[in-house]
Specification:
The protein is globular, with a radius of gyration of 19 Å. The model has no long low-confidence stretch (mean pLDDT 91). It has one domain: Arc Repressor Mutant, subunit A (Orthogonal Bundle), CATH 1.10.10. The protein is 64% helix and 8% strand. Helix 2 packs across helix 5 and helix 3 packs across helix 4. The chain contains six helices and three strands. With 152 residues, it is mostly helical.
Length: 152
């Protein structure tokens, strides 16, 4: 007996529409941050990544963002020019370039994450506790649902 498709009880069009609405909401939410903080989405993501894994090798940035090292280098160059990240050679191997958040980058990424938290906290005021818990549990499962490898 074949395993049942977990989505078999949901009409495909309903599923496609719900998924589009979900990703549309995330896209628009992220675009609002882009406009508010004056950075593109990739730069905001990189700052958030560095907050969790700093210093990071250029190769790790390239891998995480799924972009060529040359593209990552240009992005880091722009953020160095803005003063939000710093770059230095590794002490043990001068071929390795390490990227870290500068203090102003730390403040900026904190402001970005505070904005997300405060906006969602305010918008969840009228949502019942069970739905908030379901949202949080779904957010924790997104990597598994979308088959995205977890951070090392």
């Amino acid at each position: 007996m074949e395993p049942q498709n977990p989505l078999s009880q949901i009409p495909r069009q309903d599923f496609d529409d719900a998924l589009f609405r979900c990703f549309r909401a995330i896209y628009k939410f992220e675009q609002a941050k882009v406009h508010r903080f004056g950075l593109n989405y990739d730069a905001i993501f990189l700052l958030q990544f560095l907050r969790r894994q700093s210093p990071a090798r250029m190769s790790a940035i390239s891998k995480e963002m799924q972009i060529p090292i040359s593209t990552a280098t240009r992005m880091v160059d722009r953020l160095v020019a803005k003063g939000v990240v710093s770059r230095q050679r590794a002490s043990g191997d001068k071929r390795i370039m390490l990227v870290s958040l500068a203090p102003s980058g730390e403040r900026l990424v904190q402001a970005v994450e505070d904005h997300s938290f405060e906006t969602m906290n305010r918008n969840l005021a009228d949502v019942d506790d069970a739905d908030i818990k379901a949202f949080f549990e779904t957010a924790l499962l997104m990597e598994k649902i979308l088959n995205i490898p977890e951070e090392p």
